[in-house]
From TrEMBL:
This is soluble epoxide hydrolase. Keywords: Hydrolase. The keyword Hydrolase applies. The lineage of its organism: Eukaryota, Viridiplantae, Streptophyta, Embryophyta, Tracheophyta. It catalyses: (24S)-24,25-epoxycucurbitadienol + H2O = (24R)-24,25-dihydroxycucurbitadienol; an epoxide + H2O = an ethanediol. Residues 62-208 form the AB hydrolase-1 domain. Pfam families: Abhydrolase_1. Coiled coil: none annotated.
Length: 357
């Protein structure tokens, strides 16, 4: 079902196109999907690959870079792109490497945090800015944390959605830690090349997207014995009001073309990231940061859940310049599910930092 051949890296061009012009849906659905037809997409060269980038807003305004997570594209930020650009910000949201219309490489060694941070640096260089605001969700948050570690000079302020900064364990590789959850843990299942791809391929792409995007579980996503996580995830009988069938189809169309190997390679590079991060052992995040998460996000269940870490003193001890916003009844894909609340939380943080410049 899914093609995982690497896409051509000769596809890079400077042409712009209007997203809504390409939409096959009615004007009503176009308005729901994009709210405006002025979001532009273009291809840029960054770190030796081509990135597809969506942007909107006054190019003279402060630059805000939005980094999506798994399994998404820039489209996951559609509400924030529209909202922040309407308040004077120049908003840029790339398809990360391996996703959407950006280049995808077949080997997991091309998806380390060194590569991913360099992609973002190349993006900033393309726009000619020394510093930018950065926001990331899920894997985009992980990239953002590493950007703040590696190149804090390039980040005015960072907003992390769903994924807090957790210092590197000096003794235990990620893959070894994940084994403690058993083979049913989704991250463990994603480690073996081809395993998750084969499991996903048993379902149509719309079903795969619904199973992930509509997750309301608060555990760490552990499937029963001899069960693939994609088969264990359930789809609600009706869609929640924050997403439409047409919006899900936008994602499905992209993954139908790009496949899932690129996105899954992020998980397969986690042990490599552990090696790369060794020189920053014990380092703190000193960039001004805001953390936003739903109280019903993945992994928040139990006394040892993520929210206990976030609300306790440990998180603040490693990110001293930190604000925290917990959104009630919010799940993992928080910037879509609770788009208005997230957008306002982001805007208040950005405006505050702009006033201090």
């Amino acid at each position: 079902v899914f093609s995982d051949l690497p896409k051509s890296q000769n596809s890079c061009n400077k042409s712009l196109h209007l997203v809504a012009d390409l939409s096959p849906f009615s004007l009503y659905h176009q308005s729901r999907i994009m709210a405006t037809n002025s979001v532009r997409e273009k291809k840029i060269k960054s770190n030796g690959i081509c990135l597809n980038v969506a942007e909107k807003g006054d190019e003279e305004g402060p630059l805000v870079v939005l980094l999506h997570g798994f399994p998404e594209t820039w489209f996951s930020w559609r509400h924030q792109i529209d909202f922040l650009s309407s308040h004077g910000y120049h908003v840029v949201a790339p398809d990360l490497r391996g996703y959407g219309d950006s280049d995808s490489l077949p080997n997991h060694e091309s998806y380390t945090v060194s590569h991913l941070v360099a992609d973002v640096i190349g993006l900033l260089d393309h726009y000619g800015t020394a510093q930018a605001f950065v926001a990331g969700h899920d894997w985009g948050a992980s990239i953002g944390w590493c950007l703040c570690l590696f190149r804090p000079d390039r980040v005015k302020g960072f907003i992390s959605l769903s994924v807090p900064y957790i210092p590197r364990d000096p003794k235990l590789k990620p893959s070894e830690f994940f084994k403690s959850f058993g083979d049913g843990l989704y991250i463990s299942q994603f480690q073996k090349p081809g395993r998750a791809e084969a499991a996903f391929a048993k379902h149509d792409c719309v079903t795969v997207m619904k199973k992930f995007l509509l997750i309301t579980r608060t555990d760490f996503l552990v499937a029963p014995p001899d069960t693939e996580i994609i088969d264990d995830l359930e789809i609600p009988s009706t869609l929640p009001n924050w997403i439409t069938e047409e919006e899900i189809q936008v994602y499905a169309d992209k993954f139908q073309r790009s496949g899932f190997t690129g996105p899954l390679n992020y998980y397969r590079a986690m042990d490599l990231n552990w090696e790369i991060l060794a020189p920053w052992q014990g380092s703190k995040i000193l960039v001004p940061t805001k953390f936003i998460a739903g109280n019903k996000d993945i992994g928040n269940e139990g006394d040892n859940g993520t929210m206990e870490y976030v609300k306790g003193g440990m998180f603040k001890s490693v990110v001293p310049n930190l604000e925290i916003a917990v959104i009630e009844d919010g799940h993992h894909f928080i910037q879509q599910e609770k788009s208005e609340q997230v957008s306002h939380e982001m805007l208040s943080f950005l405006n505050k930092l702009c006033k201090t410049e």
